[in-house]
Amino acid sequence: MNRRTTIVLLLVVVLLGAFLALTRTETLDIGGEEAEEEETFEVIPLFEEAAMDVAVAFSITDHETGDRFAAEMVEVGWEITESPSEPEGDLVIDVLRLDAAARSLTTLTATRQLSEIESLAEYGLDSARYTLAFNTIGGNQYALDIGGETVAGNSYYTQKPGDDLVSLVSAASLDTFVSFLSEPPYTEPMPTLEP
Amino acid sequence: MNDAPEKVVEIDRGVAKLVAAVLGIGGILVGVVGFTAVGSLADNLVAQIGLGVGAFGVLAYVLLDPPAVQAALTGRRARYASNSLLMSVAFVAILVLGFVVLMDLEEKVDFLTVDLTEDQQFSLSEQTLDLLAELEEPVHVIGFYTDWQGVLKDDAETWLKEYQFNSEGMLTYEFVDPELRPGEAAQYGATRPGVMVFTQGERTAEATLADERNMTGALIRVLGGEPKRLYALTGHGERSLEEFGDFSLQQAADTLRRENFEIETLNLFASGAVPDDADLVVIAGPTTQFRPQEVEALQAYLDAGGSAMIMMEPSATTGIRTSGVQDVAFSPDGGLLVTASADDTAKVWDAASLQETATLEGHGSDVQSAVFSPDGSQIATAGGDATVRLWETNGSEVAVLEGHQSTVWRVAWSPDGDRLASAGLDQAVIVWNAESGEAEQVLAGQSLVLDVAFSPDGTLVGAAFEDGSVRVWDTNGVEIANQRPHVGQSMAVAFSPDGSRLLSAAFDGTVGVLDVESGVATTHELYPDLALTDVTFAGEELVLVAAVDLTVRAWDADLESEQFALATEQTDFIWQVSVAPDGDTVAVASGDGSVELWSLAKRERLDTLRGHASGDPLLSYLADSWGLTVNDDLVVDPGGLFDEFTPVSFAYDTFSPITEPLARAQLPTFFTAARSIGAVETPPENVEVVPLVLTSNQGWGETNQAGVVQPDEADNPGPVAIVASAENMMTGARLLVVGDVDFAANASLQQESFGNLDLFVNAANWLAEAEELINIQPRSSTFRSFSPLPGPLYVLVILLSLCFVPAIVLAVGAGVWMQRRSRH
To answer: Which site among B76, B106, B179 would you substitute to test the A interface, given the most A Cβ atoms closer than 10 Å to its Cβ?
Structure first.
């Protein structure tokens, strides 16, 4: 190949490469800023260390109304220790609902975690509406502040006290506990066999 | 001590070089394959070992035979090879780098986009381009997409880039994650993730989907300010603008909503006036007449500068009586006649003098049917107000029977006078107790019920249905027969005097004969090219049928031959033929508002009764105040879409803002069973009438509807207009009249290669004085799917592409190599 041709070709390659390097660097700079805002989307355990543990007591507090619901496991099952309203008639504690709710506590997950937080007020977490707290059989205590709903209405903004991250938790998971404040888990007694 | 010399193992240098070469090439191959499979060298033991072994092999080869390597690198072949390699590398590098550079430039400056799709699905429509070009103030779009909506966001950005590029910077956009910035989403009113909010100043409009229709709709709304208010009239069987289904105008209405219209329904009879905030009134295919007071309310609105779009179906497509005298009956003694009319009244006449003796007013709507009780003391009427009413013959109302949900077409009295039967638009036949007024039986039909009759002994009820069927029940509601002798609408039924047969006349020119005992029906094709509207017995020997050629034809009782025909002088459909008790006098009621009396024996007209208001008040208003005539015909065009009754038009007025874009884009429109729109010879002062859409020169308006389809003197010669506009230059009032409503129905709008939607939307925008929005609507993209090839064809394609073509290349290469080798 003619030396001149080779030089021209190489020059073209170098020029194109230089242009690309320059423009790509600019893009990467911009992208870098975007990348910092880009958050992860995955199933994130909220209380990873409690995953193998068992919740034996939990409570949810409505900071707006002051209502509080609390239940704890006793030898014979679950006992409601605090409730905004008392059951009517012969209703008994709905142990199955309480048990299912308590089981879900240690495995609560977030669908997304936000780290670049400008203002907690935007997420309703500057003064959280609810606080969900629970104790495990291992003696550990956990808590989760629950703020506002997302635009889609399918998740709550939550934050663990002392944590910088804001976690999006499925509304379906948390509504179970929120509903205890308005409809405490009481049910009709199971029919018993008469001898 | 053993001094025996050490045995030296000699390795052949050639074998060593071979081993080194194999290790070198093999190792590099394994390394490359391993790297390709995993995509990384880290934690990729196979690739690392492969590349290590390969490097060792290459190094060993170089050390074992340095001269050969040197010769290979510096020899003549090597120089050629290296030149070729360098050229190839440089060429590929230029291609790759050039491509990447162009892509980078393309992102910054949209100069490379070429839309090669068939329906230009990635190109903005004229309407959007015009809007963007005329932006006077900046528009900012915020796309609210979460990070898990990457694909949707990419789609949105593709469109937004096009909008931004074509707005010359007047439209800008950004994306906001509504989960990350819920406050911003709330501030702009984003209702959910995955929407775009167009903003201009304080105004916002949301596009819920990333496509041109929704985005341009949002752009229009944000630019348009206050929405236009459209009132769709109800109460006359108009097509719905809300419901789904082929015949409703829901899609057209949705398009208007995207273009900043707010749509509400309005019952003019109930409201008494068009609201002040109306920008446009739409009348979508009424099936019953407007009442005079409703027309007055519409007139008042238009006189004040309002706008209206009126779409009218031909009467032939519905089989529905809409004008003139719709029923006539003799009293049992023959001394009186009663007539039911679309002018909202029934009237009682002296049969001899034809003097009016009483007017029955109360329906407040068109009266469809009237009949005397067997003892002649009372009259039963039925009408558009969904009631059956009982009257004394002097005109005083006795009772109102309520139970139907819609217009009642016909009412019949049982021979013993104990029961009444009524047939309605609600597809029900109701048997009433004439004494108490209670509904005894509600017999559900399968389509509109157009006629009902009692058998002579009063034990059976027969009914005619719009779907061409006839049914017979006993008075306990037990079905005796259900047959479908007709293809067209069954317009009327009549029992034979002995009650053994039920005759039915249909729009397809046939008469059905149902044997009541066996339940078997036979079809007699009396007039293949002539629709029939009524059938009745004249004694035991004659059967009279009314035909749309405005004749009454007499047949023998067995329908074997036509005996004679009575040619009326009436000018509109004959809706009813009634025989007097004397068996000779026949009353013929017509849509032109007249009743002719004939003698069967003499076969001559005895007299003509006129006394009802004729014609549709709305049509009269259009003719008198706007100079527009809605012709009672059916547009026929040999170049139709599916048949000659589905005219396709390319002939537009090129000066009207409504049709100019259609003409420019050469977009055809089609109409299904339309009627023509004409103009009076001398239009009213200050009114400018413009025919907008015309048939081809071969088209015409066939007045002999469902009859002989060929142009003749009685027809409206073509080309005829199907759409016409009118504007009052003094008041600013605007009117658009279309001789069809199906053109804007959902089923028609599926045909996107036609401009039906554009015609409808442009007309609405013109009427609402939003001319800046008139143009061609964005099209939705054609959905294409891949259908896997059938097995053998698939194998053939695979063999051809993967085996045959490479084999040819290999064979040619081998041939060249062998030829060159043989030369050396």
So the answer is: B179
